[in-house]
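Support reply, case 0932

Customer input (verbatim):
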Amino acid sequence: MDIDWISAAHLMYLQREPSFFAIPPGVLRLTRVEAGSGATPEYVRYLLVGDATAGPIEAIWPDEGECLPPVREDVDLAFRLKIVHFNDLHGQVTHFTAHGAQPVFSRMAGYARVLRERYAGHARRGVLFLSAGDDAVGSVFDALLGDDAATFQTHAAYRLYSAAGIDACAMGNHDLDLGVRLLAKALATDARFPLLSANLAGCSWLAGMYFPGALFLVKGVRIAVIGLTTPAQIAAQPDSTLSFVDPIRTMQNLMGALAGISDVVVVLSHLGYSLASSSASVVGAGDVELAAALPPGRVHLIIGAHTHHALNEQGLSAHNIVNGIPIVQAGKLGEFVGEVDITVGRRWAAVTSVRLVATRDLPVDDMFERTYVQPLVQQVQPIFEQELGFVADDPELSSDAVSNDLAGGESAIGNFVADALAERCRLAGYAVDFAAIDATCIAAGLAAGRLTYGHWFRVMPFADTVRLCWVTGIRLQQWLLDNAQRVDRPAEAHTERGFLQFSREVRYRIQLGRSRAGVAVVDACVDGQPLAQQRERIFLVACTSFMRMPAVTWERQACERDHLALFDPRGLPMEETRLFVRNELVDFIREHGGVTPASGARRDGRLVIDE
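Our regenerated output:
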């Protein structure tokens, strides 16, 4: 039976059809759903419904009255499937610049539309349009998501994806940053496409709203698309349980059953490129490890995300073919659109062309921009222009200082953010002793003059939350030594090491020594008292949910090369809050009139470095 897409009608269907969920172990249901807005009469979309994590899938059952899609009859005639893909847009459907709003997604949508129109009348050509996840969290459009279901306005990306006829999206880790309730609201309100995650199990709020995979019947060719999600950097979900299962095992569970219903198998992966990637934390397995573990010839393509790699800019590289499986990824924030051609013949399919297209070089789809994007821009513009205060004329607050000096010692903007976080936590009722922030929490600096919400959003574009942890004086001494080992050293190239900035209650001196292994911390004090006299005291620390995540590669190399015994604060007792770091800083700035020396944006000697 055909059902409306994820909407009120769809949810009613799920509620009145308990058999939809009554699926025995080892079985997936195949449910036909309404096609997207970009579909043609020769296009059919099915959902794979059930649990792919518990064990091998032995059978796929079509819904009553449906049949499994048959093998196409013209097997002697090669079919070419063109996949248009992108990843990690992070809500950047439009780039707000000093020169005004610059169209992004309307260029991507126009590109896919032109391809669909070009091949609409061709019997052996077809197009799919896919996102590999992280479709929100990172732009001012996040303000339209609200804080809860009651204040939700719209998910800008999902609304535009639906209008453009996106065929499917993988669930990204940052799609969960604002909580499963808001994600469920966004799916029910704005999504007309399947959200895919085969390795996510046990999330009651999202039950019936995400699926292991989808099957597309495009002019007789059967394309299975399976979604995978990394468990890395997932924000705490106090009102729900998220359980992510090993993606390799999950894919192995699916392999046997997919062979009988598909001509092409595509993995839409938000795992990250590989365990060796340094741009984001990769847990368990990345696309490289996944490809190496899969049966040869059973998966034809992995479309990746999460680590923001721009792969294959000069065409498919042999480095990105693992175990015979090509791996593609299209950068971040809409900088590229990826295009992959898969040619399908008799009992075979192969990737025959791969390329990246710079989005800025694509023409704007004026109709799409005018009809769908501009109303959202007008809706968010007043939020973007909200005045928060004033920024002092201080080069230490600039983006140049942030990119070069933030992890090199005491920082005016680092002091400001850490002190503000400590104050806001106390106002919220948390008796924190001090705050610690990872330098990566600050993405940009500020220009002198008027400060708007949009300006501060560039400084803190992600939805980091406040996390509380408890540490003894003994372990805090170890923590400070660990931090000293991470500081940028003279004559060394800067890379992400997870250096922390502390609020004013913590003061110490770093003696660099001749190497990182020889660094020392002296004169450490908390609240004006020597830390050596507070060894048994238990301190309550406010930090952030995104702490030292990008430092994983450096940590591994430092332990192997320099024999450093690093301290991992992620092993401390912790408690999550529902405080969003950016929101707390915005409120602090409003209350204190801006980012100035008077509001705390200055050095005060809390950290001294002796070379």
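We compared this against your earlier run and they match. Two observations from our side: The first strand starts at residue 27 and ends at 33. The chain has a mean pLDDT of 90. Please reopen the case if you see a mismatch on your end.
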